[in-house]
Design brief:
2 helices
């Protein structure tokens, strides 16, 4: 599983002034967007957990074998389709 590290945040100890000054506070996201993102993340985690369990079972191996048969069959018969 790929895990990303958080980007380190630099802390500034000096004050900022001017037109483009920032307080350093985060702008809160819209509640709807945050809830949607959390829902999608939870769904993705459930999907990954189910995929891991499926691929560790005999059925994962069976699906893999069927896919290999389809790929090799396609490679075997592809030249017959290209010559016409």
């Amino acid at each position: 599983m790929i895990q990303f590290r958080e980007t380190p945040q630099e802390e500034t100890t000096h004050g900022q002034s001017g037109v483009l000054a920032s307080t350093g506070a985060e702008v809160p996201a819209e509640p709807g967007r945050a809830k949607f993102a959390l829902t999608m993340r939870a769904a993705w985690l459930k999907f990954r957990r189910a995929e891991r369990q499926f691929s560790n079972s005999i059925w994962g191996d069976a699906v893999g074998c069927v896919c290999l048969v389809i790929i090799f069959g396609g490679l075997l018969y592809a030249p017959l389709l290209w010559t016409h």
